[in-house]
Write a structure and sequence with these properties.
Number of strands: 13
CATH class of the largest domain: Alpha Beta
Helix content: 25-40%
Strand order of the largest sheet: 4-3-7-2-8-9-10
Structural class: alpha/beta
CATH architecture of the largest domain: 3-Layer(aba) Sandwich
Bound molecules: guanosine-5'-triphosphate, magnesium ion
Strand content: 15-25%
Order of helices and strands: HHHHEEHHEEEEEHEHEHHEEEHEHH
Radius of gyration: 22 Å
Length: about 325
Amino acid sequence: MIISKLGKDILIHGILDDKALHPSISIQLKIPEEVLRWDIETRHRYLEYLKKGKAPIYRARGMILGCAGAGKTTLLERLQKKSLEDIQKIKSTVGLDVHNDIFEVLEKEGELEVAVRKCEPAIHIKENVPVDDAEKIEEKKLLSILDFGGQCMYYACHQIYLSKRAFYILVVDMSKNLEDVIDEELCDQKDTMFSNWSHRDFLLFWLKSVHCYCGNEAPVILVATHAEGKSEQEMTGYYQELMTAFPGSSTIKTHLSSERYFSSSLKKPYGAYIESVDELERKIVEVITSQKHWGEEIPLDWALFEKFISEKKETKVQKLDKLKE
Ligand SMILES: Nc1nc2c(ncn2[C@@H]2O[C@H](COP(=O)(O)OP(=O)(O)OP(=O)(O)O)[C@@H](O)[C@H]2O)c(=O)[nH]1
Ligand SMILES: [Mg+2]
């Protein structure tokens, strides 16, 4: 049986409003939450596709948020195991950088491996296997990362990208005092609603954005950069300071956890990193693999369509007839 009878009934006849649609319903029915929100005709179509076969899919999306200069791109490049020489060449991010499928998730080892064969589609369709057989799919477990530019003129488009399906890495420069107003050159915030905002205000803004667009459960990993020379005690103290910096925002704080709090530092003069990012890497894998859509089953046709799209990616315009085919 592909999905339960109740699932089928809901897909074909059920009317679900937002209040009735608790995420647990989607898990129970094994139907993605987004599908349950579609109109009845499209839900019907989903069911038809599902009858033809389904396949588990392992995709994750992480978004790196924080003020300009906090060290977002640096952190990403460290996760990619780039050399300090490369890292020192990093320039301020313009808009946002989308890194599709840059890491392979090694679930058992708790590691992220830089995906080497990026140009190949993530999904491989095996030959000589019946079309409706999930075994036909050989999937890779992949992670995409969106690295946001910290200048405030880009913030208006963030809600397009923030998603319930993603997890977040919030980067904060811990060498700055939380209550200090951010230099207006840093995030280009002069004469905007962000002028005179302190580091604390910006942090709250990021957390509120995640809360607003991604619901209560979106996990946030907090990374305090510029942590050179900080003792463990100072690190703990900084986290506690952050937690008390948002009085009356208890719902916002639910996105944070001391277990998802890390420090990162560079030791420039000696040409070496102070700390590795292995622990952060393991936490990312843990967060990804505990998200409810990890390994969710999708109609096989969707997977085939993705393969088709990735093969044709080089041609920017596709004829609709061909796509429909
Ligand atoms: N000392 C020290 N410098 C760091 C650390 N992390 C980043 N930097 C430096 O801070 C500067 C800004 O780093 P980026 O990674 O470009 O910062 P970003 O958050 O991506 O900035 P935007 O792209 O402008 O939003 C660079 O010169 C980095 O070398 C750190 O932990 N310690
Ligand atoms: Mg950057």
